[in-house]
Amino acid sequence: MQDKLRRFKAGIFQALAHPTRIAIIEFLRDEGEMPVTSLYEWLELEQANVSQHLAVLRAKHLVVARKTGNQVFYSLRDPIIGRVLDLMRQYFHSHLSESLDLLEDMRAGDGRKRKRKRIRRLT
Amino acid sequence: MQDKLRRFKAGIFQALAHPTRIAIIEFLRDEGEMPVTSLYEWLELEQANVSQHLAVLRAKHLVVARKTGNQVFYSLRDPIIGRVLDLMRQYFHSHLSESLDLLEDMRAGDGRKRKRKRIRRLT
DNA sequence: TTGCTATATTCGAAATCTCGAATATAATGG
DNA sequence: CCATTATATTCGAGATTTCGAATATAGCAA
Question: Which of A49, A50, A68, A123 minimizes the number of CB atoms within 10 Å of its CB?
């Protein structure tokens, strides 16, 4: 069971492991229930892409979809997930300078073609 | 900055998104500082594999390595990460039956060769 | 030095993830 | 029925992750 629980956690973390999905969750947490259109307009991303990310979040039951007429309204299923993100923010700030270095290292944000990063030596 | 923070969070979640790494973190949280040997003996995994996972955790500064003579002792850097895992456990239990279905869906634990899972229809 | 223990790194193959493009589907209004 | 709007799904290419196997390195002792 220990192992089941770990696989469960890993699965949830996997779903959270993408900036766009984090943005979606934060948006839903802060603004409440939202139709997909609002989501992708706010995120300035393609509809298909947002739908794909929503599918990932749905698969892990992190969000709930409510269909009304033409549209689908999404909302966060459990505020506990919002709390996880808050803890992360705390963590980020309590190690601020290192966190920024980390981001620098990740070279995130530049396009998506890059050599595998060399692992830094331990010593 | 919103975006930086989201990339940071995504990076941490990515590091947490593997059952072995979760096991490592929980072990360090519960048992305190440990040399690598103890880790892989307890986990019953190959030394190289555990070392690779430790490299991932180190890269995100989730663990700290202290070298003493021959061995390297690892410990959790910040208890806040342990708290994140605790929240996840809570989450797991508060949606227990669904969580179990989810695991069933993931068909986790069986080998690592599998077709891409078909996404369940929304309606 | 040589050898031994502890740990880390590299390599390559298979699995998985991500994106945009194209397509599909459902609800609604003519 | 046909068109439109809102959303979801499929496909394929390129990026990334994962593992075991092989290899490298560091500390220490003979």
Answer: A123
In whole angstroms, how far apart are CA B25 and each of A90, B32, B52, B111? Answer: 19, 10, 14, 24
Say whether pTM exceeds 0.90.
no
* Closest C1' nucleotide to B119's CA: D9
Length of chain B equals 123
Q: Using the predicted structure, report yes or no on whether residue B110 has a pLDDT greater than 70.
A: no
Planar angle of CA B59, A120, B65, nearest 5 degrees: 60
Q: How far is the CA of A70 from the C1' of D3 (A)?
A: 15
Task: Test A91 with B108 for CB contact under 8 angstroms.
Answer: no
Query: pLDDT at residue B121 above 50?
Result: no
Maximum alpha-carbon separation in chain A: 60
Backbone angles phi, psi at A59, to 5 degrees: -60, -30
SS3 B119: coil
Question: Token pair of A8, please?
Answer: 């469960």
The secondary structure element, H or E, covering residue B66 is strand B63-68
Q: What is the CA radius of gyration of chain B?
A: 17
Give the residue-averaged pLDDT of B51-63: 97
Answer yes or no: is pLDDT of B112 > 60.
Answer: no
